[in-house]
Amino acid sequence: MRRIQLYDTTLRDGSQGEGVNFSVEDKLLITRKLDELGFDFVEGGYPLSNPKDFEYFQRVASLPLGTAKVVAFGMTRRKGVTAAEDTGMRALVDSQAPVVTIVGKTWDLHVFEVLRVDEAENLAMIADSIAYVKSCGRRVFYDAEHFFDGYFANPEFALRTVTAAAQAGAEMVILCDTNGGRLPEEVAQAVRAAREALPVPVGIHCHNDCELAVANSLAAIAEGAAQVQGTINGIGERCGNVDLVTVAANLKLKLGHDVLIPEGVARLTELSRYVYELANMNFRSSQPFVGTSAFAHKGGMHVHAVNRLASSYEHIPPESVGNTRRVLVSELSGRSNIIAKTTKYRMENDQALMTRILERVQDLEHEGYQFEAAEASFDLLVRKVAGLYRAKFERVHYRVNVETNESGAPVTEATVKLLVKNQVEHVVAEGDGPVNALDRALRKALQPHYPRLAEMQLLDYKVRVINSTEGTAARVRVVIESRDGEDLWSTVGVSENIIEASWLALVDSVEYKLFQDEGLPADAPRESAVAK
User: Is 316 a member of any domain?
Assistant: First the structure.
């Protein structure tokens, strides 16, 4: 099997995705993480496009990178000027990036209708740009924009453009499905033609507009492509780019190719979540290989089989990509699910207890609870049914008040009265809304007794109406996602009153944290979840 280069463009192409915005610090952190895992190339951006990218190239030069080569990205020279006179060309060279990727036009439609130049000038723009950057001592890749659309519209024209790039000094020509609209068999056909025509290796760069970017990239590899360009988690413009996480896992685990460092594939889940965190994006639970649902089992028959032979319902071991198996609990669950979830309590041989837990789950789900997305609440339920639960505090009462101030802006205040370790705590706190105010008041009352609560933060808050036919009297389900420096967990609360449902989920979240911390010395270190 071959070594396949992985070229990451998260910091440039990925940042063009809707809602994605990386700071310079974010870009430097992601560069270091990609280097740790053994990515071959990290494209930092276009040095002339904005001050942020300019600063990135100034600062990344001092990073002690091991495997990754930093790449500057830019377009061919403008029409009618020499490459040496073009400000974009000079910016690429001045970036001091050891590798430069130049993108040029392949499709005759773009050449004639967008650039408004003839074929000879387009070929000269490609060749001049590559030759200039090469003469300045840089390695050069050529991105053939719209190669596949161009090839199927006018194959001779498209092949002349990539041949010009290779003859001018590009060490690799990357074939781009820029519109993301081609099928795997079309990609394979065009890659074969390009390889036959070119004296240099080819790479592949796919967008995901038909959700075929991974399939198209693997089809190109099967035809001899030596490099895959893409982004982490597939972020990018429109429907995104090919997901290099999925590509890397397939190349290594399914096809046996050499990618990343030896342990790199086993850290793909870590990498995926790291980038999600820095991009301030929610994890995609159904993401192949690394999603939280990728190895989640709900049906009782499935769980029974997985407990006996994991490969019966899992195509790879989850740990091979740094993920974990999850057994979900719901009204569809059988005893196998309950047994799998309670092994840490060593109660799996108590069949009567397993039955009581299952019955309690089914009763609560009939009321509107869902535990498959609230495993921390399920953990507390098991403790209660098994007699292992001891309340960390008791609620006396709470009150939430919302009113407007003099300027008409809403002001929310929560008052909470608790009994904690035989001591009454009566506190008040303001917040951005009822839930935030309750959260602050609850922490304010408990933190003097449980200092580790300072590590905890609320990440996400979801509300769903369960019985919408009841109108404003409908029951609602609230799911809260929380984290500390080490763990991530979810809890659930259900009530006709949205504040009470939120309170129930908040209390479960806090109690789960307190149970997890039991037995830890006061000065026990906590590893950052982002750094994991």
Answer: no
* Nearest CA among 451, 456, 462, 459 for reference residue 513: 456
- Give the span between the Cα atoms of 193 and 176, in whole angstroms: 14
Instruction: Identify the H or E element spanning 214.
Output: helix 213-222
Q: How large is the average pLDDT for residues 253-282?
A: 93
Domain count within the chain? 2
Across residues 246-252, what is the average pLDDT?
Answer: 98
pLDDT of res. 531:
35
- Torsion on CA atoms 411, 414, 415, 417, rounded to nearest 10: -170
Please give the pLDDT value at position 521: 43
Q: Tell whether 509 is covered by a domain.
A: yes
Q: Report whether 402 contacts 375 (CB < 8 A).
A: no
CATH code of residue 419:
3.30.160.270
Would the pLDDT of 163 be above 60? Answer: yes
Model pLDDT, residue 370:
79
Nearest Cα neighbor of 332 from 288, 296, 307 is 296
Position 352 in a domain = no
Hey, is 490 helix, strand or coil?
strand
What is the pLDDT confidence band of residue 525, given thresholds at 50, 70 and 90? Answer: very low
In angstroms, what is the C-alpha Rg of the chain?
28
- What's the domain range around 181? 5-261
Contact 257, 4 (CB under 8 A): yes
Cβ neighbours around 387 below 10 Å, total = 8
> Which of the four pLDDT bands, split at 50, 70 and 90, describes residue 520?
very low
